[in-house]
Specification:
single chain; 25% helix; alpha+beta; globular; 587 residues; 7-stranded mixed beta sheet
Length: 587
């Protein structure tokens, strides 16, 4: 839940300091300094989308240089989509984009470090260069390829790099592994944080000097407490009902305690902190937050966060988000792994109620972050409101391209069944039994839903597959490993199981008649296999290719399957303590 750092910053504000800060000026304390601006700071935006780009396939480090002559390259428009281009629809590999543009004279109150290079969404991996200097990258290029097509790109140019009132050059190197390719979604440009908030972010009015001082004082107390290793003092900055990106007060303090136990001093850092006031009167700090040790070890890298503060009690409330990324250190994967969490509408307004869980597995070349690009939280909220599906915690693991089995590509089956399931039951208010736990998946994930569900009947009671690879074995690892996994092909697995074993689960699956990989026919065959053994199932076919337009509208069917299973096993609802309404807690 945390985010990296380099040095301690402190906000000890005098009245004069606060007035300067309200104007976006530098605030200096005895030990450190930062810019604590309000929304009165300039709303700057340089939109770079549209025509005027240069493009070519291939790869050459020389193409990053700002003085490279690219006049012979193809003229191009961004955003684009290789999949819809006749010349690129079958191309997989490297390509470069270059954009030459003139910045206006520097707006008053704007420095380079307050400008974010937002490059939208890129399929699959990229790195960006501004005036010849690398400003960031996402994913990884071959031979250690890592697809990150679903991750929004935001890079932070260092001070002194932008040429105000002069010509600048942005060069973007990218690599596409399969399908799609290119800049497929914006925004693309150079923007201040205030401008990005106007595009997509919490709305609010400029904080007054007094409100600004209150917000900065809370951050100051947090930074000093962490630097001093004083967990109790840090706890005193958090509201009793603090809930931020999945962290309760207890969980946040446990994480900070673990960091402090590492032997080195811990440093909390906030950069580019801007303060506004939302419609409920809360102070909202738009910051780039990070955690590290004093010797420079990264504990959590810089990440833009919105911190919510009660202006009267001067406590951090948390964002009370219901859709966020969580992570843990995985023994199975030998690294820290991420997963995305959706919490149902009633979760953050209750403290005792427990909820069933659905595990949702992504497809090949995907990750847990792809669900954000689909606004899956809004999709599920609508299903709850309009289709009356059961309110459930939904977990989106990151399975990369590991086909949800254990292999040399990663022990993804163990990660889900032996680590993630018990961890989620400990960290969130779930109903921790198989009757209230379902598993769904898309494409490769549809195959994974069948293999994990059927091989772990003690964990899952309902199985759903959207255009799943039901006729393929898991294609992960070496040739020998793939051969060893042949029996996990869902059609083969179902054929091998008896009716009594199969009846332990309920089933939903679909597949389009024009599915690009023939998975529509695989779904029909799955229906025949189950019917031959007298097993009930819900199937939906019809026209459609292997794409979101086919399966997303069918989520009501798969979640209805899980909901029916959950409701068939009612549980006693625990007494819910009286809680003040949010309006009385959040001014």
């Amino acid at each position: 839940m945390f985010a990296l750092l380099v040095s301690l910053i402190s906000f000890s504000l005098t009245a004069a300091d606060a007035a300067d800060a309200a104007a976006g000026h530098r605030v200096t304390s005895g030990r450190s300094s930062t810019v604590c601006a309000t929304t009165a700071s300039p709303d700057f935006g340089m939109d770079l989308a549209g025509s005027g780009w240069r493009f070519r396939t291939g790869d050459d480090p020389a193409w990053a240089a700002d003085d490279y002559a690219d006049a012979s390259w193809d003229s191009w428009t961004v955003p684009d989509d290789w999949g819809r281009s006749p010349d690129l629809s079958t191309y997989d590999g490297y390509a470069w984009y270059r954009k030459t543009f003139t910045l206006p004279e520097r707006p008053e109150g704007v420095d380079d470090s307050s400008v974010i290079a937002a490059l939208g969404f890129i399929d699959d991996a990229d790195e960006a260069f501004l005036n010849g200097e690398r400003i960031g990258g996402t994913g990884a290029f071959p031979p250690a390829f890592d697809s990150t097509w679903e991750v929004p790109r935001e890079y932070y140019p260092p001070n002194g790099l932008l040429r105000w009132g002069a010509v600048n050059v942005l060069a973007v190197r990218m690599y596409d592994d399969t399908g799609g390719g290119g800049f497929y979604k914006g925004p693309v440009g150079l923007y201040s944080k205030a401008h990005l908030r106007n595009l997509s972010g919490p709305a609010g009015a400029a904080a007054s000097p007094r409100q600004l001082a209150h917000a900065c004082a809370v951050l100051d107390r947090q930074h000093e407490a962490v630097a001093a290793g004083d967990l109790g003092r840090y706890a005193g900055t958090l509201d009793h009902d603090f809930f931020h990106q999945g962290d309760t007060t207890a969980r946040r303090l446990a994480d900070v305690r673990r960091m402090m136990a590492g032997g080195s001093a811990v440093v909390l850092h906030d950069e580019q902190a801007e303060v506004l006031v939302d419609a409920q009167g809360r102070l909202v700090v738009d910051t780039v937050r990070s955690w590290a040790t004093s010797d420079g070890t990264v504990l959590s890298p810089p990440r833009r966060e919105f911190l919510y503060i009660d202006p009267h009690r001067r406590l951090e409330l948390g964002d009370h988000s219901r859709f966020f990324r969580d992570s843990y250190r995985s023994a199975a994967m030998h690294r820290r792994v991420e997963f995305t969490v959706y919490l149902p509408p009633g979760y953050t307004s209750t403290t005792a109620r427990r909820y069933p869980t659905v595990y949702m597995l992504h497809g090949f070349n995907g990750s847990n972050i792809e669900w954000e690009a689909r606004d899956m939280d809004q999709v599920i909220d609508r299903l709850v409101a309009e289709k009356h599906i059961a309110q459930s915690v939904v977990i989106f693991p990151d399975g990369a391209s590991g086909w949800w089995v254990d292999s040399s590509a990663g022990d993804y089956a163990t990660m889900v069944t032996e680590e993630l399931v018990p961890l989620v039951d400990r960290a969130y208010r779930t109903i921790p039994d198989r009757d209230h736990r379902g598993i769904s998946g898309v494409s490769m994930g549809g195959q994974g839903a069948f293999t994990l569900g059927l091989t772990h009947p003690e964990l899952f009671s309902s199985i759903a597959s959207h255009m799943g690879a039901l006729s393929l074995p898991p294609l992960a690892g070496t040739a020998e490993e793939q051969a060893a996994h042949a029996s996990l092909e869902p059609l083969t697995l179902v054929h091998s199981l008896g009716a009594r074993q199969l009846r332990r689960h309920s089933y939903y699956f679909d597949g389009g008649s024009e599915d690009d990989f023939g998975f529509g026919q695989a779904a029909i065959r799955m229906g025949s296999e189950l019917a031959a053994k007298g097993i009930a199932y819900d199937y939906q076919g019809g026209p459609g290719r292997h794409e979101d337009a086919y399966w997303v509208p069918k989520l009501d069917r798969s979640f209805a399957l899980h909901s029916k299973q959950f409701r068939a096993h009612p549980v006693h609802r625990q007494y819910e303590p009286h809680r003040p309404s949010p309006a009385s807690v959040w001014p």
